[in-house]
Amino acid sequence: MSLLPNTPRKKRILRRWAALFLAFSVLAILAIVDSRLKATPEPGYCPGEPRWVVSANDSGYFLSHLKTTDAVAQFVKEWPQPVVRLHLDFHRITGIRPTPTRWRLWMGKRFLAAGSGDGIGFCVRPGVLLHAVHFIRARLFRADSDAGVFQYGNHFYAWRDGFVIISESERYVRRSLEDAPPALESSQNRAEIRVQRFVLPRASIGVQASNGIPVEGWIDGQLTGRRTTPLSGPEVWPEAPLLSLTISQWSDITKLYALAREILPGQRAKTCAEGLVSFFGAMDFHLPGPNWDRNVDHIAVALDDFDLSANIPVPELIMTLRSTTPARGPHPLEALLTNGSALPHEWNEAPGFILPAFGEKAALCLGRYGSDWLAASQEPLLRKIAGNLKNGPDVHADMVLYLNWNKMSRVVERVLGQILSLELLPPSKADEVSAYWSPMSGALQRLGELRLGASAEGDRLVFTGFLAKGTQPKEKD
Fold first, then answer.
1. How far apart are CA 122 and CA 128, in angstroms?
2. What is the DSSP letter of 336?
3. Of 68, 185, 271, 322, which alpha carbon lies 20 to 30 A from 98's?
4. Residue of 222, 217, 202 whose CA lies nearest to 462
5. Are 454 and 462 in contact (CB under 8 A)?
6. What interhelical angle do 128-135 and 100-107 show, nearest 10?
7. Domain extents for the chain?
8. How far apart are CA 72 and CA 447, in angstroms?
9. Residue 344, preceding peptide bond in cis (omega within 30° of 0)
C-alpha cells in the first residue's frame, strides 16, 4: 500500500529525492576520483640535477599548523606585509587564494619546489578541479602544446604521471619531463617540510610546524668532537649573549668557518666574512701552535653585544676555555702576548693580562677563575664573567649554537638609529629603511632564541634544535 496517493505532488517529491540522490552520488564519485588522483607515494618531479629541493607530504596540513605556531603567529601579527604580498602574488599567478583548504582542493597534498641551472619551479599532484580546467583549455579552447608543454600567461606547465610541473622557465619544465627524479629524503610527519641541498656541501633539514619551530637534519662536514664531558649552552654566561658557540676544540671552529663560507648565499656575504678574518689578522692575533688547547675540554665563544659609543660598532667578545682540572700555569692564549705591551691585571684576585690593541674598546684580556680560562675584548666584559660563569644544563653534542633574536634585533635597531642620526642615508632612503625595519624588528624581538646542537657522525654533522624557542607574546596595553 502506497504511503502517498499517486498524485502530481507525490511525483514532484519523488523527483526531488531522485535529483538529490543523483547529486550526492555524483559528488561521492567525484570525491573518490579526486582522492585517487591526488593519492601517490611519489614526491613529484623536477630536473635531475637540482641545486635545492623543498618537499612536503601534505602541504596544506603543514601550512594550517604552521600559521598557528607561537613563532609564526607572533611574527605575522607584528609584520604582516610579507605574507600579504606573498598571498597577492600567488593569487595573481594562479587565480587561487592561498588558504590551506583551497590549496588542498586545487593542488592536492604533495608539493615539491626546486631550483636548478634551468630555473625555479614547483610540482603538485592535483585532483579533479585542475584536471577539468586543463581539459577545458586543451580540448574546448584548443590551447597550444609544444611536445606536451603548455603555456599560461608567463608560466609553462606540463603533466607527468598525474603531476603537474609549473615554472616560468620552459627549459625547467622540459627537463622535469625528461630527467629521472633525484633521490629525495621523505618524512612521514604531515606537519613537516623537507629542504635538501644537492650541491656541496650537501645538506638536508626538516622543519616542523609546531611551537618553537623544531628542526632536524644533517650537513656534510666533520668535527673532531674530543670532549670528555657534555657541553654547556649559553646558560654558562651571566646573561644571554647575542650569539654563542660552544665546541670541544678550536680547530673545529675553523672547520665550521670554512663550512659556513661554502653555504653563505652570495659573494657579498663571503667578502664580509673574509673581511672579518682580515680584521683580526691585522691585530696580529695569531693563535699559538697546534694543540694549544689540548688541556681544554670545551670552548665557549660569544658575541655579547656591540659597543656603539663610537661611530663604528665594535663587537664585544667573550670566551671561556673550560678544563676538567683547575686553571693553573700559563694561560693557553698567553703566547698571543708577544709584543711586550701587555699589562698585568687581576680579576677576582686571579692574575691575568690586558693587551690594548685599539684602546680600551678593543683589547685582549686574559684571566682565569676556577677551572675556566677566560678571554674578552674589553676589561669590563672579563670583569663581568670572572667568577660569574655557571655550569648550565648538560648538552650531549659536539657543537651548540644559540642566537638571541631579541638582542640581535635591538642591536640592528641601535645601529640603524646611529646611521640615521649621522645622516649617512638620503632622506628618501632613510624613510624607506626605517619603515621596513621597524615592524620587522618588533617581530624578531619576540622570537626567543635559535638553538641548535650538532654531533659528528662519520662525514656528516647531524643536528637538532629550534628556530624560535621561547617565543614571547606581545604584552597587552
1. 19
2. G
3. 185
4. 217
5. yes
6. 60
7. 35-211, 216-469
8. 9
9. no
